[in-house]
Amino acid sequence: QVQLVESGGGLVQPGGSLTLSCAASGTTFGNNAMAWYRQAPGKQRVWIATISSGGIRTYANSVKGRFTISRDIAKSTVYLQMNSLKLEDTATYYCNRPPGAYSWGKGTQVTVSS
């Protein structure tokens, strides 16, 4: 059974940066796309970035140019580098094989506040 553990969240000021990590056990990344999602308070979880099995990256318009998804296949870990953070980036962040093929992890909270 695949387990996903997200980490790296925290409190950051607007304009700041954070790097999130998602470690997966019970699967190998190499053959699968992986994605990041986020859920703001009172809202549905939404997709924000995908890295395909071939390494092609796609982003939601809301994060394009600010966030970068990457992966370390050997470590079965996917990352999300977040720059120029905005108040509206405040959310709980999750990773999964799109469109949610694995059981969801607990996520990691990112709070952007001055």
Fold and architecture overview:
By secondary structure, the chain is mostly beta strands. Helix content is 0%, strand content 47%. The protein contains no helices and 10 strands. It has strands at 3-7, 10-12, 18-25, 34-39, 46-51, 57-59, 67-72, 77-82, 91-96, 108-112. The strands form 2 sheets. The protein has a 6-stranded mixed beta sheet with strand order 2-10-9-4-5-6, with no helix packed on it. A 4-stranded antiparallel beta sheet has the order 1-3-8-7, with no helix packed on it. Strand 7 and strand 8 (77-82) form a beta hairpin. The radius of gyration is 13 Å and the shape is globular.
SSE arrangement:
Layout: E1 3-7, E2 10-12, E3 18-25, E4 34-39, E5 46-51, E6 57-59, E7 67-72, E8 77-82, E9 91-96, E10 108-112
Parallel strand pairs: 2-10
Antiparallel strand pairs: 1-3, 3-8, 4-5, 4-9, 5-6, 7-8, 9-10
The separation of the N and C termini measures 40 Å
Can you tell me the residue ranges where pLDDT is under 50 for at least 5 consecutive residues?
none
Helix content: under 10%
Order of helices and strands: EEEEEEEEEE
* SS class: mainly beta
Work out the number of β strands. Answer: 10
Tally of contiguous helical segments? 0
Radius of gyration: 13 Å
How confident is the prediction overall: mean pLDDT? 95
Largest sheet: 6 strands, mixed
* Strand neighbour order, sheet with most strands: 2-10-9-4-5-6
